[in-house]
Amino acid sequence: MTVGIIGAGNIGGAFATALGKAGIEAVIANSRGPESLTTLVSKLGSTIRAGSLQEAAAQDIVLVAVPWSKIPGALAGLNFDDRIVIDANNSIEAPLYRPADLGGRTSTDIFTALVPGARVVKAFNHLTPKQLSGDPHSEGGGRVLFYSGNDMRAK
Ligand SMILES: NC(=O)c1ccc[n+]([C@@H]2O[C@H](COP(=O)([O-])OP(=O)(O)OC[C@H]3O[C@@H](n4cnc5c(N)ncnc54)[C@H](OP(=O)(O)O)[C@@H]3O)[C@@H](O)[C@H]2O)c1
Q: I want to staple 109 with a disulfide (CB 3.0 to 4.6 A). Which of 41, 48, 86, 105 is the partner?
């Protein structure tokens, strides 16, 4: 399976770091284009490369880690038909961290409407970047990853 990452900031970069350490191939993308990611990918190992949003979105599994208000713009025009899309986002945003008004819906319901045809799993949204990229057994612990979604096979 190939992995795409949309958003190359704290969480997208940490996820790419973890994949790179495990030797898993991934394409990472941001809003400014692959050239802006040269320095980041040079630190992540040979399995991680920078690409366009379209390339990242075309992989078998796509993790999206973009600030809440920017998600609609980041996903517009991309095709995710029948692929697994991981929603790593929270509906709060720096610097105020004020919860967004979701109109009574869950954030993942709103996210899912932006990726029609995708099989959405919510995951990786509750770890800090350091926990996500670091050794899961550090400090004598065992890292726990919670995930949820309506598609059993995708989960
Ligand atoms: N930081 C945390 O501790 C943490 C933990 C768990 C979950 N989360 C969630 O993860 C998500 C990302 O947070 P973050 O801290 O990683 O954010 P961040 O460091 O600000 O990075 C955001 C990334 O999104 C990209 N982006 C913004 N607008 C875009 C667009 N229109 N098209 C494509 N890419 C776009 C940015 O690319 P450019 O720089 O090129 O614009 C950047 O690579 C948020 O939903 C947040 O709630 C964060």
A: 105
CA of 22 to the centre of ligand 1 (A): 23
Indicate the domain borders of the chain. 3-148
Which residues lie below 8 Å from residue 92, measured CB to CB, with a gap of 6+?
Answer: 68, 98, 99, 100
Q: Which of 57, 58, 55, 68 is nearest to 9 (CA)?
A: 68
Q: Which atom of ligand 1 is nearest to the CA of 13?
A: 16
3-state secondary structure of 27: strand
Q: Which CATH architecture has domain 3-148?
A: 3-Layer(aba) Sandwich (3.40)
> Do the beta carbons of residue 75 and residue 114 sit within 8 Å?
yes
Q: Looking at ligand 1, which residue's alpha carbon is closest to its atom 41? A: 31
User: According to the model, what pLDDT value does residue 139 have?
Assistant: 86
pLDDT tens digits along 1-42: 899 999 999 999 999 999 999 999 999 999 999 999 999 999
Report the distance separating Cα 89 and Cα 20, nearest Å.
21
Encode pLDDT of 60-110 as tens digits: 999 999 999 999 999 999 999 989 999 999 999 989 999 999 999 999 999
